[in-house]
Amino acid sequence: MAEREGGREGRDRSPAGATATRPRMPRLDQPRPPRRRVLPEWDPEAFGRLSEKIARFLGTGRFIVWMTVVIIVWVVWNIAAPDVVRFDSYPFIFLTLMLSLQASYAAPLILLAQNRQDDRDRVNLEQDRKQNERSIADTEYLTREIAALRAGLGEVATRDWIRSELQDLVRELETERTSRPAGRDADDR
């Protein structure tokens, strides 16, 4: 036995023949190692929430006031400041570029926020529709139950009906008692 083990240890463990050219098979009992991605990953929900916040800010009066202040400061700086510190001269091409850039980012963000709002509205409308269907079904069920109770109530003995029946029985008993001879009453007891 020791010779066999020793012989095996002495052998070269590299595969030979057809097995040498086959690639190693992945193990199926273990998860794959994570792949390196070329493009960065992002959470679409987080990006959507951020775009909604930006769109909400862009739609406020505060944004318009700040944008107006920035443009006024920009223009005044580039007109009144010394030539050495001016960064955008009279036609204000750089300002136009910055406003165009801001608009090119603002429009898709606003559209994304609107699409997300449309999706939420669609879900809310679907939930409202289902709730209305349940309410209608409940109302129809209750209507059928009330109709069945009304129909069954016609067969239920009411207090007035029972009173009239008892009065009729009392009259019958009185008429029987008065119509019987006095001797028979004693024999019946």
Automatic annotation (TrEMBL):
Transmembrane segments: 63-80, 92-112
PANTHER family reported for this sequence: INTEGRAL MEMBRANE PROTEIN-RELATED, MEMBRANE PROTEIN
Source organism phylogeny: Bacteria, Bacillati, Actinomycetota, Actinomycetes, Kitasatosporales
Region (Disordered): 1-39
Domain of life: Bacteria
The keyword Disulfide bond is assigned to this record: no
Protein name: DUF1003 domain-containing protein
Regions of compositional bias (Basic and acidic residues) in chain numbering: 1-14
Family matches, as Pfam families: DUF1003
Keywords: Membrane, Transmembrane, Transmembrane helix
